[in-house]
């Protein structure tokens, strides 16, 4: 297997030097779609849509980073705050990760693992969220960057990947509840942002024990969003952010407004282009579902989609709007943080997990979110050297930044897994004490997940009992 990877790394690496990531993903998505039986026209349509999405998000990020580059440098100079790492959001990191031949290898490994789990009845979820394999792949790539060999990295990817799939089954009844959907609803997700659930659950249980009275003061997020209207929208958050940075950087007033409107435009476009990504993989998702149903004799399966099928719940956006300025303040005072939140200021790596675990109790979502945000900022700081080096290796480094700048994503999905990868990588190169530390980290990580699994099973039994009571 190492020979195959070495071959891919050599020849695909040369291929990447002459082909842009958007064209590569057009080819990859089209070919995979054809393999699972999608008609050529639909397969090609999905590939083209994905290429357009990647090109668009790259263009928006270049606008954002180039616009903020000078302001951020002035901001750091005037305040003395060393938030020197640029938060470029998720899209450039996705492009970087898909630019590595190892990502296709990890994708193949997880397809095999998912099929094996289905055949062995260890899961009912077929993961069709092919594009978002990059969240798991970047964890593996970071472990390799820190020194892990291919075998250890593969085992780490499988370990986390299996837990992700198990988690998708655990969350299914909660999704039905949140969506007011019947049991026959096939939608669930293996998205990496829900791997924050165990830690969120821990904080949620602490609130149960110490502050249970908080639920008496909870409020309807949909009504709040309707009252706030534009002033709580992504556009408004972009304006607040631009004004804040522009004023602290001492920019002229007109330049400050230009910066604010640019940020507002980019944050709105992130959501629009994000939807393009989802639409681009729909033909492939349907093709894989049809393929599996034929091969598995029509067995009823859950379909692991991207997380936004739950995005209609207003609690997520209310929490995101409130947490955005809090995140900026935390970033300024947090020891060890070097990231100024920008591309990830709308914390979509966190708020879906908050929604699922608290079942939409907005006060809990905000309080727990405040304690969770430092984990993301520290993780973003940790992976910045890798993200920067990887971006330069595939010609995806933002054009508006200086060559000495570091890039990252402040709310990248799977921050805890990045720390696990860090210690696994060190153990592989340094041995001795680092091996013991890595084993302890993995043991704690697994123990927390198993405890969370037990709690979710209890919750799911309560869902089932409640429905049986209604039937009776």
3D architecture notes:
The chain has about 475 residues and is mainly alpha-helical. About 70% of the residues lie in helices and about 5% in strands. It is built from 17 helices and six strands. The strands form two sheets. Strands 5-1-6 form a three-stranded parallel beta sheet. It is globular. The termini are far apart.
How would you describe this structure in keywords?
472 residues, mainly alpha, 17 helices
Which oligomeric state applies?
Answer: single chain
> Tell me about the biggest sheet?
3 strands, parallel
Spatial order of strands in the largest sheet? 5-1-6
Ranges where pLDDT stays below 50 over 5 or more residues in a row are: 7-19, 468-472
* Percent of sequence in beta strands: under 5%
Outline:
The chain has 472 residues and is mostly helical.
Chain-wise SSE layout:
Layout lengths: L1 H17 L2 H15 L4 H40 L5 E3 L2 H9 L2 H19 L5 E3 L5 H13 L4 H30 L7 E3 L7 H14 L10 H8 L5 H15 L4 H28 L1 H14 L6 E4 L8 H20 L5 E2 L10 H8 L3 H32 L12 E3 L6 H16 L2 H39 L1
Parallel strand pairs: 1-5, 1-6, 2-4, 3-4
